[in-house]
């Protein structure tokens, strides 16, 4: 009975010890940068330069940038639409926040803010937007996936123990004891030389193994299950300096993504609502439902999309059939392209729509200093 009582007292401590994994004490700065595709940004999407209203869920990263509108109908020009998204936490506190601390409030810590601007030369107006996004589900985020962070912790531990392992390896190869070698200056020198000769190869082998592990993770998780919620405010001004800016629109999105075809596909279901100021200075609403399916791999994939939108102002609806893809050119640079047909049921007319944009995220090997 006494032993059972002691065991019950120790049970909470043993449970806490069992939950204490080596990855919990890693800092965010210890984790690799994953080069997933750069998604649409709330501030950019709210500028109204794209035919699709779908906002693709994303993995929280420190910085994203998007630029589009490179063609004015006759010539190539500087981009007229530009936006950035950033995470204050991931930009400033990578070396201060442990994984456990991040995971304790993972949804709140996934907060990202975006800023965007669009210059409409035809109407001589400038639109500026600010957006906010939060992730409630993200099964492809290395910061919250214990299955990969434990492996990362093991690799980092192995790297820190390379020198000690090589010293032991030298003793075993030469049938020596640690004490005997320590008392022999010639043996110690030979042991040190052995370590110096072999440590570069050991580090290179570990680095290659680590890179392969991360590449496989990206390959297997680019289409992971995700759920984001985002909002954005947009203002409009009659000049380029954004003076006398006034309310233009408020947008809200929620999008759910789930994997299909194992590692080859991803289905997105999105809902978008917008309140906006119309040309007659009244406030109107529209709501749209989107379905998009990607097929391919992380670096190159194509998609087909359908959108239905109801417009309160005209009491009519529109439909969009959209096709496109995205390609990782190099490092953190991506291109996104799509084209389709949009039908307006108020006048039964169809029009061709297209979009091309450059997207950028800080690459995995980038170092500020």
In short:
This protein is α+β, with helices and mostly antiparallel strands.
Can you tell me about this structure?
This protein has helices at residues 2-19, 42-45, 88-92, 99-104, 106-109, 146-160, 162-173, 178-182, 185-221, and strands spanning 63-68, 81-86, 112-120, 125-138, 226-237, 246-260, 265-277, 283-296, 300-311, 316-330, 333-344, 349-361. It is of the alpha+beta class. It has a single domain, classed as Beta Barrel (Porin). It has a twelve-stranded antiparallel β-barrel with strand order 1-2-3-4-5-6-7-8-9-10-11-12. Strand 8 (283-296) and strand 9 (300-311) form a beta hairpin. The longest helix is centred in the middle third of the chain and has 37 residues, at 185-221.
